Amino acid sequence: MSKSNHCPCGTKKNYSVCCEPIHNNHALAITPELLMRSRYSAHVKKLTQYIIDTYHPTCNAEEFREGIEDSTQLDWRKLKVISAHLSDQIDNEGFVSFKATYSEDGQLHQLKEHSRFLKEGGKWYYIDGDVE
């Protein structure tokens, strides 16, 4: 399999069996980590609507469409998941810590975030995160 077929999320799987099915059916992201990986891949693939749709409804992400579109224009290079776990206190809450590398104006940058996800109506959603 050529590298170009690898999913952008960093698994060694082909995009067509990794994040693409989730991009077509958000409910297939059965863990916070799968949702986070699919959101990263959506940035790489410039799938703005998917990113908006996977924000928790209380985030009103549609209001931030322009900024989300801008973030998809960055040259996303690599994703590294540091940790992923479900909350000990709340059944429908999970967390993912990650580092995402991107290039902007010829400079490499790294986004480090501890993201929080909530499950509602059988689907995981990104709600917020702490950026380091």
UniProtKB/TrEMBL annotation:
Q: Which InterPro entries match?
A: NTF2-like_dom_sf, YchJ-like, YchJ-like_M
What is the species of this protein?
Answer: Aliivibrio finisterrensis
Domain named YchJ-like middle NTF2-like is located at 31-129
Q: Which family does it belong to?
A: Belongs to the UPF0225 family.
The protein here is known as UPF0225 protein ERW53_06805
The record's section on SUPFAM superfamilies has: NTF2-like
